[in-house]
Amino acid sequence: MRLTTRTNLAMRTLMFCAVNKGRIVQKHEIAVACGASENHLAQVIHLLARQNLLKTRRGRAGGMMLGSDAAEIKVGTVFRIFEQVLPFTDCAEQSGSCPLSGACRLKCVLTNALEGFYKTLDAVSLQDLVGGNTDLEKLLRVA
């Protein structure tokens, strides 16, 4: 399994905002710190703001900050927003394109595995990732 670039950027953006709590950060700062394209980042920020995970402010002094406390933002929530748009396998689609769909048990195994994956992510908050992580703070803290 491999995460999409958008999910990866979403988590980096949220961690950046969490490390710089109480400060409005700019897209450019995140892009530089995380080695990301500002255009790609803009799409991710827009979706995070639509889901109320970020608060954004337009204008010259604009930027963004977390939409709620880092302890309330669960990693599983972020992953679902960005990853569940795409089916994990062809068997998850309703088109019935798999010739084995009537007899294959793999779909059940994969469904259970994904449920376990998301259950693990649901147990982790953004605060768990950044709290006390001095190495991450050194990388993401705005001077």
Number of DSSP strand runs: 2
Order of helices and strands: HHHEEHHHH
The CATH architecture would be Orthogonal Bundle
Question: End-to-end span in angstroms?
Answer: 36 Å
| Low-pLDDT windows of residues | none
Q: Supply the CATH superfamily name.
A: Winged helix-like DNA-binding domain superfamily/Winged helix DNA-binding domain
Q: In this structure, how is the largest beta sheet organized? A: 2 strands, antiparallel
Count of individual domains: 1
**What is the approximate shape?**
elongated
Strand content: 5-15%
Helix content: 40-55%
CATH class: Mainly Alpha
Sequence of strands across the biggest β-sheet? 1-2
Calculate the mean pLDDT score and round it.
Answer: 89
Radius of gyration: 18 Å
Descriptors for this entry?
mainly alpha, Arc Repressor Mutant, subunit A, 143 residues, two-stranded antiparallel ribbon, 52% helix
Short note summarizing the structure:
By secondary structure, this protein is mostly helical.
